[in-house]
Amino acid sequence: MNPFRKIILRLIHKKLDRDFKHAKVITYGRKDKFVIMSDLHRGTADSADNFYKNRLIYKFAIKNYLKNDYDYIELGDADELWKNKNQKHIFDQYGDIFWTIKQFYARGKLHMVYGNHDIVKSNPKWLEKHYSDIFSIDENSYVPAFKGLKCYPSVILKPEDESLETFYLTHGHQSELTGDLFWRVSRFFIRHVWRPLESIGLKEPAGTAEKRLKMQREENTLIGYARQESKVLIAAHIHRPFIGKYYNNSGSCISEGYIDALEIEDGKLSLVKWRTEVSEEGVIQIKRKPVKTRTETALAPNAASLRFFDKKDA
What we know:
Blueprint: H1 3-21, E1 24-28, E2 33-37, H2 55-67, E3 71-75, H3 87-93, H4 95-106, E4 110-113, H5 124-130, E5 133-136, E6 141-144, E7 151-152, E8 154-159, E9 167-170, H6 183-199, H7 209-229, E10 232-235, E11 247-249, E12 258-265, E13 268-278, E14 284-293, H8 303-306
Parallel strand pairs: 1-8, 2-3, 3-4, 4-7, 9-10, 10-11
Antiparallel strand pairs: 2-12, 5-6, 8-9, 12-13, 13-14
Helix pairs in contact: 2-4
């Protein structure tokens, strides 16, 4: 490893350490249930809104979790605030969804972590000004919804039972300098260069070799940190769901036709997908599909689950 890369890794590890020192710490037991979602990138229902196509799947899933008494953790990049400057426009477009999220908050079951695309939520004054009231159709006016909401750089789920594991949650943008230290530069480019191009139909090329190598580098950085610190890390950011011994990823809610989620129930971490399916009778349904549970038998990843990075133990 070249000296410059070593310096960068030390900076990233220090930033992660610092963020976990400012974490929201939640004590949990076997009866507690959590759902973790990230990278929704809620926008304004235009051609640059990557969430819009999955809004109904998400709405169905989140109501299901509310009904079944889960805590809801948004692990960053929930709102697309690089492309969009005004949070109110996002509230107005997805008022029914925010009304459901408000119910989690009213029960003390909403925990919010900021990512690079909504890093402005790290500012309490911004939250107080822009993330308080939502429109109520019943009252035909704006009503208080998220008064006093705090957004954290990380969350630590600390077990009350020693037989359970401690989970360390953060968005994961710390693994790249452009998304962390230089986020204002990246936001300027996305808002003033990329968004106009996207609005006329240009789409980001997926699966390029350069993009895969970038994701590999960021994943390996987070895996290295988690292994070095012996932490069970749950991150997001790169939109690639994963379950492993040290490193786990919550995926995203903007893939074509499905959304990812991580669930914690009875102290066990599981990856699930919510997707649309068509029955034999031609009825379109939204179904929850379990993908993988983080058990001892599932901790030795194979080549298929690791995809293109070659770590022996993630």
